[in-house]
């Protein structure tokens, strides 16, 4: 492993630990030449997950885009970055386990909504309003009523 600071190719591992439920390894390293420390991640390379959009276009799945959408819905809400990271990781894991190589974008949106409804109801409504493309206030109110009914049945 080359040092990102001085380019030396002699580094030593100070600490290793499993992350993401054992599917990756985080290593803390130190350069033998400049003594600076840095972190590396080692993860197995799997087949890319392809998202099939509503219009039929295909693009590679991006956990970053998933997190950005969740973060937008959770803006100014009492939801931590760790909760968003965990949700994105769990959704990606379930998508990879439940489909071959292609997943409809609808499955991703529904998974986000299923998680947000339990995490933060305001974030859920925000996400739903964009995901379900609310055209007017009536549709917004309908979603609110459905949410209240679900909450009352629990």
Automatic annotation (TrEMBL):
Top-rank taxon, per record: Bacteria
Keyword rRNA processing attached: no
UniProt-listed InterPro entries: ATP-cone_dom, NrdR-like_N, RNR_NrdR-like
Keyword field: ATP-binding, DNA-binding, Metal-binding, Nucleotide-binding, Repressor, Transcription, Transcription regulation, Zinc, Zinc-finger
ZnF segments: unnamed: 3-34
Any one GO biological process: negative regulation of DNA-templated transcription
Cofactor(s) required for function per UniProt: Zn(2+)
Signal peptide residues on this chain, from the entry's feature table: none
Span of domain ATP-cone: 49-139
Note describing how the cofactor binds: Binds 1 zinc ion.
GO molecular function: ATP binding; DNA binding; zinc ion binding
Assigned protein family: Belongs to the NrdR family.
Function of the protein: Negatively regulates transcription of bacterial ribonucleotide reductase nrd genes and operons by binding to NrdR-boxes.
NCBIfam families, alphabetized: transcriptional regulator NrdR
HAMAP family referenced in this protein's UniProt entry, alphabetically: NrdR
Name recorded for this polypeptide: Transcriptional repressor NrdR
Native species: Desulfitobacterium dichloroeliminans (strain LMG P-21439 / DCA1)
Source organism phylogeny: Bacteria, Bacillati, Bacillota, Clostridia, Eubacteriales
Gene name linked to the record: nrdR
């Amino acid at each position: 492993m080359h040092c990102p600071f001085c380019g030396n190719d002699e580094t030593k591992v100070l600490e290793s630990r499993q992350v993401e439920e054992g599917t990756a390894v985080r290593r803390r390293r130190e350069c033998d030449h400049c003594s600076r420390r840095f972190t590396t991640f080692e993860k197995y390379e799997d087949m890319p997950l392809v998202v099939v959009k509503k219009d039929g276009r295909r693009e590679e799945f991006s956990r970053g885009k998933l997190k950005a959408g969740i973060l937008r819905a959770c803006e100014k809400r009492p939801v931590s970055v760790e909760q968003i990271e965990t949700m994105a990781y769990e959704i990606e894991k379930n998508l990879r386990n439940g489909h071959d190589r292609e997943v409809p974008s609808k499955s991703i949106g529904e998974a986000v909504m299923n998680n947000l409804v339990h995490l933060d109801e305001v974030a859920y409504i925000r996400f739903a309003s964009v995901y379900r493309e609310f055209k007017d206030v009536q549709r917004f109110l309908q979603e609110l009523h459905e949410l209240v009914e679900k909450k009352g049945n629990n």
